[in-house]
From TrEMBL, chains A, B:
Origin: domain of life: Bacteria
Biological classification of the source: Bacteria, Bacillati, Bacillota, Bacilli, Bacillales
Record-given protein name: Ferric uptake regulation protein FUR
Keywords: DNA-binding, Repressor, Transcription, Transcription regulation, Zinc
UniProt keyword annotation of NADP present: no
Pfam families the UniProt entry points to: FUR (PF01475)
Organism listed in the record: Bacillus badius
Similarity comment: Belongs to the Fur family.
Amino acid sequence: MESRIERIKKQLHSASYKLTPQREATVRVLLEHEEDHLSAEDVYLLVKEKAPEIGLATVYRTLELLNELKVVDKINFGDGVSRYDLRQEGAAHFHHHLVCIECGAVDEIQEDLLEDVEKVVERDWKFQVKDHRLTFHGICWRCQEKNGTEETKEESLEKQHVE
Amino acid sequence: MESRIERIKKQLHSASYKLTPQREATVRVLLEHEEDHLSAEDVYLLVKEKAPEIGLATVYRTLELLNELKVVDKINFGDGVSRYDLRQEGAAHFHHHLVCIECGAVDEIQEDLLEDVEKVVERDWKFQVKDHRLTFHGICWRCQEKNGTEETKEESLEKQHVE
DNA sequence: ATTGTAATGATTTTATTTTGCAACTTCCTC
DNA sequence: GAGGAAGTTGCAAAATAAAATCATTACAAT
């Protein structure tokens, strides 16, 4: 965790930006919620708990900056808001998402499934792929179980998703 | 064209909605600009040419309705606006997009490239895929040619991208 | 210490999208 | 046809997200 912040700090420096306390607090929130897909507003509220004096504009600026540096990716699941998702360190491409249309859960796939598809696109469409966005919409394994069987205690204990 | 409107009309009716003149005008605009990726505002301005009395709110409501019926898909390429894209008739899945980071052009891929990937997702993640969104970001063939004529390949590979 | 530059926070502005509501059509039933 | 419910419309207002503005502050390099 600390070392990751160190590396992000270096990334900022090499683009001649500074890791200010506000920016560090923002990055920490992102690291601590790596599984989630926070909106700018979400990040703002969480950062505010640690650094109450921070302004929303700074959060927006920081997120935009991190986006430029490819530390985070800005995504959009169709609701109006942009969400910010940490990139895996060293990942050449953005990871994929599974959005459950029943419970709203968003799971991530870090594996790159598109190597072959990208080759086809480069060859057949002469399109030089730099990055991609792939999201599947469907039913997650939790909802499939929930629907298929009567719910057991263990299953309901595992349930943690809110809309 | 007329028959397509007829079929959309039937789709509306079967969900107990009506194809009002305003809705028909909106659908016609979408059909006439199938290649483009119009924003709600774009659609509004185009519909207004045929039916000047239409209100922007109606266009929004119509597009939302068509989205629910899976006649159009609402997409978002990262700029703030939602765009509305006609689905191919009978297409089980949404088509893909190639967004050029140099000239901003958006091309479509109707072919379904994801069959294999979806199988993997269903098997390995137990995720029942209903739909997908796939967008590639990169350099379109036009920009590659344009770059190639004025500079060597190495130069164009080195070129940095700003804003 | 002084200066120049970058960064910040509060506020305002812009843009997009949604909602509330009264008026207006449709399409039934009588 | 008259009456009525339901769906639809246009306008205006409101809600929302994001970006821009700007005076103030922090900080590194003199």
